[in-house]
Every structure is written in structure tokens, then in C-alpha cells.
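Lecture notes, unit on protein representations.

Consider one protein chain, 577 amino acids long.
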Amino acid sequence: MAEAFFSFEPFEFNGIQGGYSLLEGYEKDISGGKGKQDHLFGMEDWEEFESLCSQYGLVQESFPGKRAQISKAQQQPLRSSCWTLDELQLDTVSPPIQPIQDSKKIEEPIHEPNREKPYPFSLSSLELLNNYGGGLKKLNLENSNNVSSEVNVERQRLSTEEIMRVAGARYMEFSSQRGDDFALHRHPFGFALMGLSQEETKDVELVHLLLSAAEKVGYQQFEGASRLLTQCEWIASDTGNPVERVVFYFAKALREKIDRETGHLIKGNGRKDLLSLGLGTNLASIAFHQELPFSQVTQFTGIQAILEHVGSSGQIHLIDLAIRSGVRWTALMQALSEQDNYPVSRLKLTAVTTIDKNEVEETGKRLQSFAESLNLPFSFKVVFVAEMKDLKEEQLAVEEGEIVAVCAPSVLRSMISRPDHLDVLMRVMKKLSPSIMVVSEIEANHNSPSFVTRFIEALFFHSAIFDCLEVCMSNDTQIQNRLMTEAVFFGEGIRNMIAAEGEERIVRNVKMDVWRAFFSRFGMAEIEFSEASLYQASLIVKQFACGSFCSVEKDGKCLIVEWKGTPIHSLSAWKFT
């Protein structure tokens, strides 16, 4: 039976796209063909850094026979107790809250795949760019030219992503009328830029040059692309405004792709190095985690869901597929230690890793020390495999009577370019039959086999990310950390996503509908998050100074964390049926 169940043809992650969308019509499928996928590099790679402040208490929802209550303290931020790498100290977890009636469940459609040519600037790519530019109508730029002389209204500067939309709309207009590559340079105001400030106009034209270069690369017209990139590189800067910084890293990636395609750069395999960057606990990573809400929302909401599914068991076995610093589990430990009606007789944590066993063992020592301070019977085990395809069920040593919960934070995408590895992992998880499997991923489509389509998707996504970094890490004490974060993590991710191909391109993301289709192959059913988990997410967002720009929306049974309306992360929970 098991062999028959898993005897599917390889899953085509490129075959289903769409689902959650920012712009009307953007849910159209724009990628297709056979393609492998991989790991994002960016946001959730920092979910667990030790600098986490413990002002967010987990909600211990009532278990069978136990009615939950809500405290006044739960409605207010708990006092902050930031802890360092060596001092794992958390404030007391808030008492239970009363669960609220669940919302209606919405089933999301699965879209049929569309095929497209893998390289040129195809009609699908142009349509995608047009869809992004279509959001321009929401900006009401025309109105800024008709402001009454009696009322001097100063328009707020366009966000980084809005600048990209204006540039996309302008590029579509320009593409239908241009005569040669440098018409834009000679006639910089020849297309509708009314209502923009001087700086915004310069930013739009800079993005226009970048899009022109990407189109040339898509057609393999490398000489023309190189000339356009020279102009981009002259203007863009890694220390400029957000638009200039985004263009800087994308231009750098395009330059490397040209060098690779023309034989001027020997292709290498930096897979391990790129994946290992997510293990870092440097000051830039810590600052990123503290100042941006995304990772903490997905981290603690996911832990809240796990607590609700395993908290009433005396024997709990947690399996973490990307433990990193392990901070998330300290919150769960504290919640379990405060349960009077459901004492834990055994708490096991197994960390599966393919990268750095010593680093994970150090994490285990810190968690062991923290558990001892709570008088929790805790044991930690590292399962190191050279490749995920080597993982065996026996290595996880699940014992009879244990309730299993699996946490997969931003790790499944790292195996999309190696579907056999992902298939092995899912088979092993199915055999364990966990009570819950929590999955967090980037909510974006960065895996199109079409280079230009992938470029456009990545450009708009990272525009939202850099806009967020600019807003949340703008003071003098944070600027250096922000620049380092952009260069080391996002810059390297952009480089890999744009310049690399095949298994070497490990920075890949797919949207929630694709994951739903993939998980259905293994008989997995989606679990809806409780109102307690939703409350946890909203509570965390409110604690950030930039929280007003961040929102948590529901997509069927999963949660989507957004920045100014742009989907950034997805969080979903699953069980095997």
C-alpha cells in the first residue's frame, strides 16, 4: 500500500501557481513547464534568533474537560525580557484565553498549469508586468496634479513597490512605441510621469533601465544588456534609497548571469554555503528579527498551534527540520511547565540537519539548560544526514505512546530542486503520523522556468522587502545592520535566484496553492488555526512600531502575513489522514 501510494510521477512545482494575490488578475497562472525548486533566502531564515524578546505569551487553550479563561494581562504586552545567546530567559507565559467560535472555512481552487517558453520575454511575462503595473490606478497619481491651489496637500512618497509598478506600467507603454535601446535615455520624460517628484522620476527611470536589461538577457542579447547594466550600475547604490538598493542587487545578479552564460564565470556549487547563512546569529540577523514582525508572527503562531495539539499529552516528541537557534521551543517549554492538569513526563526534541551538527548540538545544550531551569524532563537529539534523502524513520526513534509534532520552518523549499529528497522526507513524516505538522514558507512564485517571469516576480517581492527594511530599520543604530542584512542575506538570495539555474539555484519559492497540491499527494489534510492562534498573531503584530503596515490574512485555512498588502509569508498546519 505504501509503495503504491508513493509511486507518483515527480511533482511539477511549476505546474500550479496563483492563489493568493495582491493585484486583480494577478492570480492568473504565469509559470509552467518542468522545473525543480528550492530554498528561499531571506525572511524566515532568521525566525529563531536568540535575541527574541519574550513579551508574547503563548495562549494555553483549554483541553478536553478544561474551560479556558482570559486574563487582563493577556490583552497587554508583557514586559520585555530580551535574552542573549547564552541566557535563555523568558517571562511567564500568559494564562489561557477563551477560544472563540471558528470562522467559516474557505476552500481555495487549484489552478491548472499553463506552459510557456523558458527564456524569452514572453507574452506571459509582459502580461505579468502589466498586471503589476495595473495596480497603478490605485495610486491616483493624476489627482496630485489637480490639487486645489487653496489647499496645499503634500502627497506621501510612493513606496518602493509602487515605484516598481509605475516603472512597469511605463515600460509596457514604452515597449509598444520604442525605436531603439536608448530612446529612453534621450527622451526621459516622453512617457507619463506626471505627478511624480524628481526623485521618484529618477527611480522610475532607473527601474526602466533594469527591466530593459532583463529583457535583453532573456533574449540572450548580452552585449546590449551589458550596456544597459552599465547605466544601472552608474546610478544604483547599495547605500542609496530603497529603489537604488534593489536595483543595485538585481543589476549585480544580471551581470553575473551574463558572465555565466558567456563563459566568463565558472559555475560553482555554493549550495551548502548559501543554506548555512540562515544559521547565523550575528548582530544584523538579531536586529532583523527584533525589528521586523514576520518571523515572530509565524514562529509563535505556529508554536501556539503545536501547543494546542500536544499540550494534553504526557509524552511529547517534537521534530524540528530546521532548528537553527531553537528559540521557539523555549516558549513551548515554558507553557508546558505551567500546566497543572497536564504534567509532562517526557519531552523529546529531535533536530534534523544536513548542515552543521556542532552548531545544532550547541543549541541543544542551551535548550537543555533552559528545560532544567523549568524542571522539565527534557532530552535532545541531533539527527545528522549528509542529504535529506538519506533520512530514515528509525533515526527519529519515536517510541510508543509519544505524541509527535513536526515543525518545518522555511525548509521544504530548499529541496524543491531535488524532488527525490523532498519525497523521502515526506514519506518519513507520513510514517510517523504526527498530530500536527506546521509549515512556514515564503508566499511568492520565484520558481518559474521563464527567466524574465522569475525576474519580475522576484523584483516586485524584494521591493516590498526592502521597503519594509527601510521603514523598520531606519534609525542610525540600525542602518549598518540593515545594510549587512540586505547584502549578505537578500543580496546573495537575489544573486542565486537570478544568476543560477538547475540544482545550483536553491533560492526558490512557490505559493500556497502549489504546496496544497503537493501535500495532497501524501494524504495530508489542512488544519484550521484556532482563534487563540489568530489572537496570538494579531497581538505580536501590534507590538512592532511598523505593525500598522503589517497584516495577517486568512487564505482558506492558512495564514498569510503581508506588508502593505503584499504577501510575504504563509503559515499552514497539516495532519496525515
